[in-house]
Amino acid sequence: MKTYLKVITMSTIAVFLICGSAVALTTPINPLGGGDGSETNLTTVLNNIYGAGNYTRVDDLNDQVWRICDIATQGPTASFKFKWAANQQILSWAPTTGIGPTSILTIPGSPQNQTTPGAPVGFTPTPPFVFGDLSSSLQWFSKMSLNPSNEDHMVTFRINPIPDGEDQVSPCIYVIAWEDSSLATGDFDYNDLVIEVRDVTPDTAIPEPATMLLLGSGLIGLAGFARRRFKK
User: Fold this and answer.
1) Under 8 Å between Cβ of 92 and 59
2) What is the value of pTM for the model shown?
3) Could you state, in order of their start, the residue ranges of all structural domains in the chain?
4) What is the mean pLDDT of residues 68-87?
């Protein structure tokens, strides 16, 4: 019986350790633009465009896979906001396998610092899907498992709902910001390509920490029941 209790207890601990790591993940963003302050950092970019406090960081485990917003107003669009990179950037969407990405928009490599926002470009993804960024023959995806060493090359911010031009509220407005170099050699400031996407939303069902928590709760209950039986 002691061995049985030990197995249940260790399993429960393992589940909650997994849950703890799955509940939240915040990829660190270098606060110095370009690593040395020579570039505009991402916080300044967002504050200039949307105003301080008008956006919220999305859990990096919940921005990997995307779908069309349940309250879509006009269909998915993407618009360029900012880029500080010498490389050409090609934003795309792809199935969750990453195979066969479809181009959405292309931002030239020159000039390096581009601050003039672009007009919205419509795209028609097949959900669930992932975003991709092709830069200097390096393809990065929003889904970390598709990148070498599971690197996270995209961070996401939800923009507070704002009027969409027709005095309606658009609830699904996000900014996706990319690091276009390997994290082993890059400056991880995530200002290499900043894009606003509308009428799409992270598929928060992937991953499912709630399911793991439910399993963990069940294991705790089973352990308590077995302990009472053992004491009798």
Assistant:
1) no
2) 0.79
3) 1-25+207-232, 26-60+62-205
4) 92
